[in-house]
Amino acid sequence: MELQLIPVDGDGQRVDLNPSAIKDMDNVTLTEFLAQAKIIADLYKKGETEVKKRLDEGQQFNRLSYGKAAQQKVLTMTNKQKYDLVKAHGWDCVEPITFTKLKSKFGDGIEQELEQSIVYKDKKAPLKWDA
After folding, report:
1. How far apart are CA 18 and CA 71, in angstroms?
2. Which residues of the chain have pLDDT under 70?
3. Nearest to residue 130, comparing CAs of 9, 43, 34?
4. Which pTM does this prediction carry?
5. Residue 54, number of CB atoms within 10 A of its CB
6. Residue by residue, what is the 3-state secondary structure of the chain?
7. pLDDT score recorded for residue 90
8. Which residue in 86, 84, 102 sits closest to 94, CA to CA?
9. Measuring CA to CA, how many Å separate 51 from each of 41, 42, 61, 94?
10. How many whole angstroms separate alpha carbon 129 and alpha carbon 131?
């Protein structure tokens, strides 16, 4: 069985989706499109999770398999190695751990110690859907 998702409008007419079609949509249509795309994105994530589960169980797929896993270099250093690194290269070779990790490691009191160094940066606001 070959499954195809074919977008149709409210009248049942097939709709070609491409970047220029999205740019040409009015605000109401674009909002409805985004709502439907959100559902598809959620289904995609659930489908991908199921595929990975089945691959982990040893099942085979015609067009899907795991690719080569990427590797990441991670430093694991003793305090002596950290000290030696700073002595050799200066403070620019190290960065503090995230504020969240500092709080979990040293407790809420660390916030008062670092109060003069805390800067609040705005993040871009997420989309908010009305009910």
Report:
1. 35
2. 131
3. 34
4. 0.61
5. 13
6. CCCCCCCECCCCCECCCCHHHHHHCCHHHHHHHHHHHHHHHHHHHHHHHHHHHHHHCCCCCCCCCCCCCCCCCCCCCCHHHHHHHHHHHCHHHCCCCCHHHHHHHHCCHHHHHCHHHCCCCCCCCCCCCCC
7. 94
8. 86
9. 15, 14, 9, 40
10. 6
The CA distance from 47 to 53, in Å, is 10
Rounded to an integer, what distance in angstroms lies between the CA atom of residue 91 and that of residue 61?
51
Return the number of other C-beta atoms located less than 10 Å from residue 34's C-beta. 14
Structure tokens at 8: 């149709």
Gap between the terminal Cα atoms of the chain: 37
